[in-house]
Amino acid sequence: MKKTFVLFFLFSGLFLFSQVAQHIDLAVIDTPNDDGSSLQINWKVSGYDSGSVVLERIGENGEKRVLAKSNNLERRYVDGTDVRPGVEYAYLLSVYDVNGEFLEEATISTSSKAQWFNTDKIALLIWMIILTVAIVYFIFSAKSGKELYIRKISGLESMDESVGRATEMGRPILFVPGISDLDDMQTIAGLTILGQLAQKAAEYDAELIVPVCRSMVLSTAKEIVKEAFLKAGRPDAYKPDSVFYLTDDQFGFVAGVDGIIVREKPAANFFLGAFYAESLILAETGFASGAIQTAGTAMPSQLPFFVAACDYTLIGEELYAASAYLSKDPHQLGSLKGQDLGKAIFVIVLTIGIILEISGISFLKDFLTMH
Questions:
Q1: Where are the beta strands (DSSP E) in the chain?
Q2: Domain 159-310 has CATH 3.40.50
Q3: Domain extents in the chain
Q4: Each residue's pLDDT expressed in tens, for the chain with a length of 371 residues
């Protein structure tokens, strides 16, 4: 009899121990550093060597949506399906054995919220603060009359020479602001330079020819040239027909510009803006006509053609810096100098990071790439 009771208590204890050992750790947390559109569900099922789990989300009216089925008894799942900030969601995790028989389940509910700041972007925040402070400092320095050094750009220094040569020879100046519309920054940069060139042309009484291939560029270029002639005190010398539309077709436009070069034989050609496969055709035709040519684009694949066929080439960011270089506007000069300082700091930090990484010290890399 005593042996029977002992065996009974022993088996009862083992059964209770197995029930305690079989446990579901289910947790739902708000996804950090997001806009509140997702939740993370973590689960760990102990007490079973194998089996499967089914994760479901319970709706407001009680319906269930299966989110995941997995053979992993320990896993993390991110629910980003129609999750809204501030709404409470309930999740049900069901555990099954290898034969598909139901074993146990657990439920949990929580809500998400949007974070104001992504803590993974602290390095970017520091970088933006440094850049902003540098730009503001240089803008105020330029406004106070301090001379800010800007590296000379040969293509822009030659503008007076090009306009003077055109005036002496009695031949026009050709300006092409690329083939893209106003949504391209290269076009805007080219039109900014057009304003400075048109003002010099008005002062020297030189003829200006500006063919364009976009309607919005046409309207903008007309206003820029007209304003330039007004600034130069020569409004009567402005010719509305000097800025005209050819065609939107890429190679049709190029054929039209080449025809102008052959017929009018301009003394100076300016190709400043976004160019593609037509760059070599334009530059080679201008070179054959004997004109002084200045080109500039931020298209890396077209720069070699301009370098080979033009006298002066604005490479990459030189095109964007041209506006500040020519106008000497304090805001543009300050922005340019501030960005240059930011680039210098970036190169220094990059160099230090490489040296530290080679030395086996990774804290700087970990900080800059934290996630």
A1: 23-30, 39-46, 52-58, 64-70, 74-79, 88-96, 102-111, 173-176, 208-212, 243-245, 268-272, 292-297, 312-315
A2: yes
A3: 20-111, 159-310
A4: 544 444 444 444 433 333 334 578 888 888 888 888 888 999 888 877 778 889 999 877 778 888 888 888 888 898 888 888 888 889 999 999 888 888 888 888 888 888 887 777 788 888 889 889 988 998 888 888 888 777 777 777 778 888 888 988 989 999 999 999 988 888 988 898 899 899 999 999 899 999 999 999 999 999 999 999 998 888 888 998 999 999 999 999 999 999 999 999 999 999 999 999 899 999 999 999 989 999 989 888 899 999 999 998 888 778 877 777 777 778 888 888 888 888 888 889 889 888 988 888 887 777 777 65
CATH number corresponding to 20-111: 2.60.40.10
Amino acid identity of 155? Answer: G
Written as six digits, the tokens of 331 are 């805001």
Tell me if the pTM is above 0.70.
no
